[in-house]
């Protein structure tokens, strides 16, 4: 896991610690001797793809830096219900107090990785790439986008700073796609890509005339997408976006687009069910 992802997780851990523990774990601290140790496992309760084990390890080691951590199924692994992901031994209080915070991270990220993998598998056989969006949980962007990669999909722009995305409100303010592209192009380095959102074929033509790098086909029917792909004729990369569900994306992929961006990868996460069990 990249250092920037772990650093982001540490910031979030500080918030999670404050909201969950406060002045202390009054249940564990009054039941468990401070010097006792135990061995635990994390177990997948359903099939899926794992992401976030290094974050879970970081969480537990915040409570006991000497915890031994033996990963059985690393991030990116496809798992079946009942598979043991990791076995670890450490202070018993640390295992109990850290459990929910570690699982909250791990279950969310694994849920993202699992859905990203399902989307990728759905479009197999087509030369198309599944992308995420900026529709991430605030503060979780590094983690959410890491999980997308663990599922085999790809990241779109990270934020507002690393790529130009001209959307409908920008077009309205500028007075058209050509004017918007021209105004921005005169002020940014040539290395920065420009993408324009379009909703009809007239806008697609205007984006082509402006010589943009990527044309987004937003909320178009599959029929109109196919017409747009023919019109663009490889003169720009093509992204399909808007209401991209698992049921629909294979048909969208067949239109010939290069990318399909799916906000649901991160904004509608179903956490993967994972549990912690004390075994010794």
In words, what does this structure look like?
- The chain is an alpha/beta fold and 280 residues long.
- The chain contains eleven helices and twelve strands.
- It has helices at 3-20, 26-31, 53-63, 92-122, 141-150, 168-174, 177-185, 201-209, 222-232, 249-253, 264-267, and strands at residues 37-44, 48-49, 68-71, 78-79, 84-91, 129-131, 164-166, 194-198, 214-218, 237-241, 259-261, 274-278.
- Helix 9 links the parallel strand 9 and strand 10.
- The radius of gyration is 23 Å and the shape is elongated.
- It starts with a helix and ends with a strand.
- The model has no long low-confidence stretch (mean pLDDT 97).
Summarize the entry for a quick read.
With 280 residues, the chain is an alpha/beta fold. It has helices spanning 3-20, 26-31, 53-63, 92-122, 141-150, 168-174, 177-185, 201-209, 222-232, 249-253, 264-267, and strands spanning 37-44, 48-49, 68-71, 78-79, 84-91, 129-131, 164-166, 194-198, 214-218, 237-241, 259-261, 274-278.
């Amino acid at each position: 896991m990249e250092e920037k992802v772990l650093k982001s997780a540490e910031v979030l851990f500080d918030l999670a610690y404050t909201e969950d523990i406060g002045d202390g774990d009054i249940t564990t601290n009054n039941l468990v001797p401070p010097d006792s140790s135990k061995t635990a496992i994390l177990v997948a309760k359903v099939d899926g793809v794992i992401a976030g084990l290094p974050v879970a390890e970081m969480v537990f080691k915040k409570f006991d830096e000497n915890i031994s951590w033996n990963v059985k199924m690393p991030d990116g692994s496809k798992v079946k219900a009942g598979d043991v992901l990791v076995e670890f031994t450490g202070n018993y209080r640390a295992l109990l107090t850290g459990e929910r915070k570690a699982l909250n991270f791990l279950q969310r990220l694994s849920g993202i990785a699992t859905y990203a993998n399902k989307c990728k598998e759905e479009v197999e056989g087509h030369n198309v790439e599944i992308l995420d969006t900026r529709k991430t949980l605030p503060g979780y962007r590094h983690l959410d986008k890491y999980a997308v990669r663990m599922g085999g999909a790809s990241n779109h722009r990270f934020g507002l700073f690393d790529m130009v995305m001209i959307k409908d409100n920008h077009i309205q303010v500028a007075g058209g796609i050509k004017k918007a592209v021209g105004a921005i192009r005169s002020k940014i380095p040539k290395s920065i890509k420009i993408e324009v959102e379009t909703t009809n074929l007239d806008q697609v033509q205007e984006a082509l005339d402006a010589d943009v790098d990527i044309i987004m086909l937003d909320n178009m029917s599959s029929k109109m997408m196919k017409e747009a792909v023919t019109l663009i004729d490889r003169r720009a990369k093509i992204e399909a976006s808007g209401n991209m569900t698992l049921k629909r994306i294979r048909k969208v992929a067949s239109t010939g687009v290069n990318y399909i961006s799916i906000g649901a990868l991160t904004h509608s996460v179903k956490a993967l069910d994972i549990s912690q069990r004390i075994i010794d």
